[in-house]
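Hi everyone,

Forwarding the result from last night's run.
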Amino acid sequence: MAAMLFEPIDLRSVRLPNRIVVAPMTQFSAPDGVAGDWHMVHLGQYATSGAALVLTESTYVASNARNARSCLSIYSDEQEAGIGRIAQFYNDHGAATFGVQLCHGGRKASAREPWDGGGPLPVSEGGYEAWAPSAVPISDDWPAPTPLTSETIADVIQAFADGAKRAHRAGARVIEIHGAHGYLIHQFLSPITNRRNDSYGGDLPNRMRFAIDVYDAIRAVWPDELPIGIRVSATDWIEGGWDVGDTVELAKALEARGCDYMHVSSGGLDSAQKITVGPGYQTTFAATIKAAVDMPIITVGQISNAHQAETILRTGQADMIALARPVMFNPHWAWQAAYELGEAIPYPRQYERGNPVRWGAAGINAPGNVVPDK
């Protein structure tokens, strides 16, 4: 029986040869937001890794949107060119599809890099003003963000659209909107961080309005034949916060507008979260959303081996599997998964001799069946 993990899937005109996604992995290594040699190597290694879709880390749409000053961004010509260099490598050498995840940090903006202790970076030390739906600080140690006005909300929505246009010029073929992990869109969605009493706050339809407006603005400028997805936190893991039922309603609303997939994660909004962690701990959220909509659902979170990923797909919990830390550890996770599931996938011609069937597969779990050596 063929492995579902290696069945193709179509997102508009983009045919992915399998169901393996390299999830966004923030690197804090882009001086002035520009992708340089680090990102060329980091993202470039996944172009020929066997994965089908590779997404950039959170890529910020404005200077004051950045989580930290060293975060990858796409609001200047130099930043666009840096991402374009990577997209060109994918075009010239890769089998994977290259996508850009667009993000605004909201109240998480102007932070120190994690290896410098994290926490807020004040304006007096080179930081910048953070915007958010409401003046709700991350904690007592953070300044309260400036509430967005109707005018500045329109400016932020335009910044997302401009970022999408730059991503297309750079050569990306997929846009993912970052609506998870406590960043700006998630802040609008959750009643914990959205205390507004205008058309962007209050009841669920109003709290969803910003996410939908961002999607609509990007769809208006993004080529119709290319897909747009969104990453969401299915739940805040906090009583009275955003939950999986709300996420289902957002998924239905976005699907009706043509959204091409939902990438389901969770948490990240507030330190009060109480997360139950374990292997595949977010797949039940993905399964609930998948049962309510027809668009493909990506699941992520402590999925580490091929048989676990295959089981998730075969039991109908999701349509695609996203990986981050496992592919940091093993950038050729897809090659090993194919071998273990008895699937033959193409290798770059420069690396064909690395296929385990060529050299005896010492130390690697044997598959049910393999392609004979040439």
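Confidence is low (pLDDT under 50) at residues 368-374.

Cheers,
N.
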